[in-house]
Please model this.
Amino acid sequence: MLKTGSGPCRVVVLVSGGGTNLQAIIDCVNDGNITNTEIVGVISNNKNAYALTRAEENGIRARCISPKDYDSREIFNEKLLQAVREYEPDLVVLAGFLVVIPPAMIAEYRNRMINIHPSLIPSFCGKGYYGLKVHEAALERGVKVAGATVHFVDEGTDTGPIILQKAVEVEQGDTPEKLQRRVMEQAEWKILPRAIDLIANGRVNVEKNRTIIKGGFL
Ligand code: GAR
Model:
């Protein structure tokens, strides 16, 4: 069971860029589409990420932990984990966080850390598939259906238990940018907030490498 304690689910969101997924989460908390949830912090690895501005504008504590500020990857990994711990989160949300998650953090937040990936896993995922590259590869392959996936984070790249997926049709004349935008609008900004709401309300269990969602997921 992923959220059992009393009080709202404490969520930390990790970001690297524009933060449109972060914005979708903030909006859903504000309009009641996500319940029983408090966004307690935002962490970016990139000090110029617009996501940090979005957090500040919404009164959410935000900070940057950049690998550029540390002598080694090991030190960065430690600082990142420390920063996450300080927020005492029930759930860690990777919302466009383009950093390899340190193994110690995966172990500490097993089944309490989720990621949004811009394809229908197991298509176009794994090492090297992130951001626009996913949509370039999908168009190159000529698929007719794209989409997004929310999954728990395990030791593999995009291999953890799948929570929600949503399909999006590819259209004639799509560019990677157009497809990326449609996948965000029609899939990512819907299923990431929905997954958080399900987890925050204790409706998601993990058994082996699968999730079971109480009451269904629609
Ligand atoms: C999103 O499309 C997200 O799915 C992707 O990065 C983008 C971040 O956009 N994540 C990955 O590719 C992870 N493998 P945002 O900063 O506007 O939310």
In short: The pocket of glycinamide ribonucleotide is lined by residues 15, 17-21, 51, 95-96, 116-118, 130-131, 134, 184, 188 (CB under 6 Å). The longest strand covers residues 37-44. The chain has one domain: 9-205. The chain has six helices and nine strands.
